[in-house]
């Protein structure tokens, strides 16, 4: 078992509450698991998440990836002193998904003093890899009052 990387731990219910009234809630993104070094969540494939050809929209894949990666990044810092914001995100779309749920898992690749890199793998319901995303986060100190 891996050592926990979190500075603050939140439950899936707490993280889902943070997403109320956001794009993540609108798209049906739900955090389902917080492990010692990963966050996992799902997104339904439906009329809100597909493009005209009936496949999951690539941009929606990126929203799922960045949502989970951003949550993970902020759990990995002392939130009394720092917060994390997205600097760069990319995605390789490998397989179209037409139905069911997309499951994404965000894992840390680099935790630095001023930046972090997260890799997010998205899979279809059969466990087949559909997208790989990489998210770079900036670690920013809270402004001093």
Characterise this structure.
The protein has a single domain, classed as Thiol Ester Dehydrase, Chain A (Roll), CATH 3.10.129.10. The model has no long low-confidence stretch (mean pLDDT 96). It is built from three helices and six strands; from the N terminus they run H-H-E-E-H-E-E-E-E. A hairpin with a 3-residue loop joins strand 4 and strand 5. A six-stranded antiparallel sheet has the order 1-2-4-5-6-3. The protein is α+β, with helices and mostly antiparallel strands and 145 residues long. The longest helix has 18 residues. InterPro entries: HotDog_dom_sf, PAAI_dom, Thioestr_dom. This is Hotdog fold thioesterase. It holds the Pfam family 4HBT. Belongs to the thioesterase PaaI family. Keywords: Hydrolase.
Helix-strand category:
alpha+beta
Based on CA atoms alone, the radius of gyration comes out at 15 Å
Task: Please tell me the CATH architecture by its name.
Answer: Roll
Mean pLDDT equals: 96
What is the approximate shape?
A: globular
Total number of distinct structural domains: 1
Number of strands: 6
Please trace the helix and strand order, writing H or E for each element.
HHEEHEEEE
Binned, the helix content reads 10-25%
What order do the strands of the largest sheet run in, or round the barrel if closed?
1-2-4-5-6-3
According to CATH, the fold-level topology is Thiol Ester Dehydrase, Chain A
Residue windows where pLDDT falls under 50 for at least 5 positions: none
Count of runs of 4 or more consecutive helical residues: 3
